[in-house]
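[step 3/7] inverse_fold.run input=structure_tokens len=144
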């Protein structure tokens, strides 16, 4: 699969599975109507989808310049931290606005979501690589 197609497929699948889990969880966490939190989940997924595409493009360009190929736990950890850290910057203001709360309250609320997504991101990218193989940027030289 070419790198652009791979990023699109990865991002879409990631968000589909995430929205299915997050919508109902937000309703419970924030004690709001499911219709409202599903709307927020869809908006969050849309932002996350765009960020996923941009971040993975950047990450794979960086990764391709690294002398050691492959995706070690340390590299996966760096990917997860970078992705989720950037997503917090984007989503906290959106959550504060949607939930009509302060940025601090939205940040605290987002921490629960962040813990879920940190583990989810590591597990999802591992599973995605197992199913679809490593991207060209991480493949051993013999596979390129």
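[step 3/7] decode complete -> sequence:
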């Amino acid at each position: 699969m070419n790198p652009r197609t791979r990023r699109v497929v990865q991002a879409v699948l990631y968000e589909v599975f995430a929205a299915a889990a997050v919508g109902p969880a937000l309703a419970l966490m924030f004690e709001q109507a499911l219709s409202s939190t599903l709307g927020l989940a869809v908006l969050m997924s849309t932002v996350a989808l765009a960020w996923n595409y941009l971040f993975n493009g950047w990450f794979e360009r960086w990764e391709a310049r690294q002398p050691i190929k492959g995706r070690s736990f340390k590299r996966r950890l760096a990917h997860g931290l970078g992705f989720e850290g950037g997503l917090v910057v984007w989503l906290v203001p959106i959550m504060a606005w949607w939930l009509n709360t302060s940025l601090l309250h939205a940040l605290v609320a987002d921490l629960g979501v962040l813990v879920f997504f940190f583990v989810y991101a590591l597990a999802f990218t591992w599973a995605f690589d197992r199913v679809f193989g490593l991207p060209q940027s991480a493949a051993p030289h013999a596979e390129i």
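[step 4/7] annotate
The chain has a mean pLDDT of 87.
The helical segments are 3-30, 34-64, 73-99, 103-132.
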